[in-house]
Amino acid sequence: MLDSKTIEIVQSTVPVLKEHSKQIGKRFYELLFEKAPDLYNMFNQTNQKRGIQQEALGYAVYAAGEHITNLEAIKPVIERISQKHRAIGVKAEQYPVVGETLLQAVKDVLGDTASDEIIEAWGKAYGYIANAFIELEEALYEETESQPGGWEGYQSFYIDKKVEESDNVTSFYLKAKNEKEIASYKAGQYLTLAANVPGEKYTHIRHYSLSEAPGKDYYRISVKREDGHDGAPAGIVSNYLHKQVQTGDTLKFSAPAGDFVLDRSELPVVLISGGIGITPLLSMLNTIVENQPTRKVTFLHASINGKTHAFKEHVAQLNRNNENVTSFICYSSPNEGDRLGTDFDKEGYIDLELLQSVVPSKEAVFYFCGSIPFMEAILKALHRWDIPNERIHYEVFSPVAILGEK
Question: Per the confidence metrics, is the pTM higher than 0.70?
Answer without folding.
Answer: yes
